[in-house]
Amino acid sequence: IRRSRRARGRWRASRGRVCHARRLIVRPDPRPLPTVENAGTPWVMKKFLVLYKAPASSFEQMKKATPEQQKAGMDGWMTWSKTAAASIVDMGGPLGKSLRVTKGGASPSTNDLGGFSIMQAETKEALAETMKGHPHFMMPDGSIEVVELTPIPGM
After folding, report:
1. Under 8 Å between Cβ of 116 and 92
2. What is the pLDDT of residues 69-107, one digit of tens each?
3. Are 29 and 107 in contact (CB under 8 A)?
4. Radius of gyration (C-alpha) of the chain in whole angstroms
5. Burial class of 112 by CB neighbour count within 10 A (0 to 12, 13 to 18, 19+)
6. What sign does the CA torsion over 73, 96, 89, 50 have?
7. CA–CA separation, 64 vs 77, rounded Å?
8. Burial letters for 131-146: b for 16+ Cβ neighbours within 10 Å, e otherwise?
9. pTM for this prediction
10. How far apart are CA 40 and CA 32, in angstroms?
């Protein structure tokens, strides 16, 4: 491909951005920087830790499920994950046994946590709407806890 003299040393990228001598001239983003006043704008997404909780007896009951019941449960999760795909940052997974660590040492502990996900939304309430009809609610006494992940101050 032969370029004219004027075009040599210069190329045009998408959106009309021009590169002269390998320096990309980029227009600034017209959207405002996130502040407390505009934290609810659509492009500012907060991240949340989603914890799937249930009593230990419910988890034991689920472990005894037949392969057909397990497949039905996984199909429910996959169907839900497709409808909530825009909010899912990390699908997460099940959680194992826990260990409590103190100054005095470590000891086994129990909790009602069964799994986790990392999701994003404008607000906790918007994320709660996404969680309606979640397959975790098929578990007896199952609940979902949504915790906002906040930045470390000064970092």
Report:
1. yes
2. 989 989 999 999 999 999 999 999 999 889 999 999 999
3. no
4. 24
5. middle
6. positive
7. 18
8. beebbbbebeebebeb
9. 0.68
10. 12
The contacts of residue 138 (CB under 8 Å, 6+ apart) are 73, 76
- For 16-37, give the DSSP string: G-EEETTEE--PPP-SPPP-ST
Q: How far apart are CA 6 and CA 8, in angstroms?
A: 6
Alpha helices, DSSP H, located in 41-152:
56-63, 67-83, 124-130
Residue matched to tokens 């920087």:
33
Q: Which helix (H) or strand (E) holds 99?
A: strand 98-102
- The pLDDT of residue 152 is 84
